[in-house]
Amino acid sequence: MNFVSHLECANCGVRYEAGKIHNLCAACNRPLWVKYDLAALKKNFKKKDLMGRPPTIWRYLEMLPISNPEKIVSLTETITPILDCKRLASHFGMESLLVKDESRLPTGSFKSRGMAMALSMANEFGIKKVACPTAGNAGGAMAAYAARAGMEAYVFMPEDTPMINKKECYLAGAKTFAVNGLINDCGRIVGEGKKIKGWFDVSTLKEPYRIEGKKTMGLELAEQFDWELPDVILYPTGGGTGLIGMWKAFAELEAMGWLKSPKKPKMISCQSEGCAPISTAFDKGERFAKLFEGASTVASGIRVPVAVGDFMILDAVRESGGVAIATPEKDIPKFMRMASSSEGIALCPETAVCLGALDVLLQRGTIKKTDRVLIFNTGAAQKYPEAVQEKLQRIDITKPIDWDKI
Ligand SMILES: *Cc1c(COP(=O)(O)O)cnc(C)c1O
Ligand SMILES: [Zn+2]
To answer: β-strands 200-201, 82-84: how paired?
Structure first.
């Protein structure tokens, strides 16, 4: 039993039946929304029902597409903490800067939210074989959840994907392939192999449930803020599921009457200038983004030159009064180190672009120094050895130590 009423194409509005396996809209090849009977939810699901439930994403079960909780595939997706980073804030002339630290989730990134949901649904449908293209962390997460569920996993990644992502997929027993192209090239392989190999395509937004998993970021955040949302959310954007999912969460909570105020956060979609299709489309006032040529960034999770849900990201950003903006690629290591050295948080290169965006948007006045600003740290810095050029002094133990140099 769940509260899903149907699925609906985000582009052309065609409806699809719930409880069936779906990928993209058959009519227009765009993503599907999972729609809920919000009136029934409002009547049957109350804030007080959350009391005493474990602090995991599954506490919001009624707002999720799961119909058989016994089929849930989980590694315990904990509610992630929100850290007030005053020392980091002071670099931007702010008193407070909130970081929701997703690096603590299974496999070290927030991809586990989406994959836990997608593979739980796949498990309900009896699917045994899953495949995805990945810029890095999605593959690692899918491989881990497939192992947990006893499913066969196929991961296709650009050959220059960070080393850790390759190793984690291999360790988790996924058939892992290094492709001499980008994530969209990998996506084409997964699509072509569907008929030949019989796997289910778990690509970002090409199945409807990863958004529902990422939606829990918005639900969780709202609960942590006692149902009053922050003024601004900065989110590093690749395929955009997280931003789209949060915006959906806020709309559903509002329809259920759970939010204390109708005021919603400005959603800031952050990218690197090395791969900025969404911010480019935003600047041009377009709803659909063009393929970003020559995409290159150490923030591998947002190296997505073309996103099938581009219009959903841009719609959410515009509706919220936010912007999409790109940070110079060369600033990424600087912001990673600024965050880690001033707060001890393991800020990933993707989230480093959010700090660049914050800097510029404060100067422009889009964000005020007194705004309640929240940044998503979507993954752990430890997964990106390639993004850090550390300078270490060497000590030769066969010689006397030169204490003046220490
Ligand atoms: C995938 C990823 C992103 C981008 O997430 P989307 O929801 O696809 O936009 C950001 N940060 C990290 C660490 C990621 O792995
Ligand atoms: Zn459609």
So the answer is: unpaired
**Which pLDDT does position 84 carry in this prediction?**
98
Query: What is the CATH classification number for the domain harbouring 378?
Result: 3.40.50.1100
pTM assigned to the model: 0.96
Quote the tokens at residue 47: 């804030």
Tokens of 300: 């591998």
Q: Is 196 inside a domain boundary? A: yes
Q: How far is the CA of 206 from the centre of ligand 1 (A)?
A: 15
Largest CA distance in the chain: 76
Does a structural domain hold residue 108?
A: yes
281 in a structural domain: yes
Ligand 1 geometric centre to CA of 81 (Å):
18
CA of 31 to the centre of ligand 2 (A): 7
Q: Do residues 287 and 307 make contact, with C-beta atoms less than 8 angstroms apart?
A: no
**262 to 120, 227, 230: CA distances (angstroms):** 33, 11, 12
pLDDT lower than 50: segments of the chain = none
Of 247, 378, 383, which is best to mutate to test ligand 1, by the most ligand atoms within 8 angstroms of its C-beta? 378
| CA 387/CA 401 separation, integer angstroms | 31
Q: Specify if 229 maps to a domain.
A: yes
Tally Cβ neighbours within 10 Å of residue 243.
32
